[in-house]
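hiii, so i know i said id send this last week but things got crazy w the move. better late than never?? heres the sequnce for the chain we talked about at the cafe, plus the structure i predicted for it. fair warning i was half asleep when i ran it
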Amino acid sequence: MTLPRVLYWSHAPDSVYAVLRTCAQGIAQLDTLERDDPALRTQALQQADVLIVAARPLSAEELVQAPRLRLLHHQGVGYQDTVPVADLARRGIRLALTPEGTTTGVAEHTIMLMLAVYKRLAHVDAQLRLGCWHINTYRSESRELFGKRIGYIGFGRIGQAVAARLHAFGTEAVFHDPGIDARTVQAGAALVHAMALDELLESVDVVTLHLPYSPAARHILNAAAFARMRPGAIVVNAARGGLIDETALCQALDSGHLGGAGLDCFEREPVAADHPLFAHRHVVVTPHTAAATIDALQTKMHSLFANVASWSRHEPMRNEVVLTNAQSDTSHSGNAPG
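okay and structure toks below
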């Protein structure tokens, strides 16, 4: 039996490729990119039966250069803004996701961002390296998580994992998620109550985003939303950059209305070094690395290549996105992500 050729679409270090090769053994012929070169990328794409999309999006123009492609497997779950769904549907190319391995890393990263913003970690770290001893500078504005009300916009598996962990910090939790009918959700030991979005924004100390990007969700946090939030409240986003109007966020920080922001993702990635948000000492930023741990990578690749093996045997795949028409009408099957 000829093994399918699988191309890893992102250029990555050899240490990442080593994990992929181990998981692909006996299942697929793995192609990787020696360098981030357009000519090499196009050449490899022309031979691919399966494409793994991770940090680097796939455009509709690039998809045309993949005549053999039959399966696109996303390394994560955020396919809405990283793959040309309508074009996949038109060509009958199947799409599957990999929710496995993401939850723990993103949940921990979200909490890290909250703590880092509250304790002004990025700024005091940078200042200390310059010899500035800010022992009292931020005593009047640094905060603790204990006793804070956390508002979750989107409350699937990652939002619930954050709430379960933050319960031990002594926080209160509320959520807004139109996809959940229940008025209360049990997340670990935390009992989390549903709220209308405006009510949530007006009553919480921290707003944390845990929903996929879609045109309807674009800029769900905008100038009007920030104006509703409590003075001094903070925003955390380890989901998708397009959920936040970054210009409005800058203005809310400039005015002093918001107390800070922790951001792992941005509307345009990679982010320019002169991004206005980088000038704010109350903003903590990371380069979309919430799920970027060796633990998550190993879990993801084992699950992903098990799915490729099922596809090769013409068996049902887990977490397939069923493309129903060229307008990208989609639904999830199997163990779909929350």
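btw The domain at 5-101+292-332 is CATH 3.40.50.720 (Rossmann fold). thought thatd interest u
miss u guys!!
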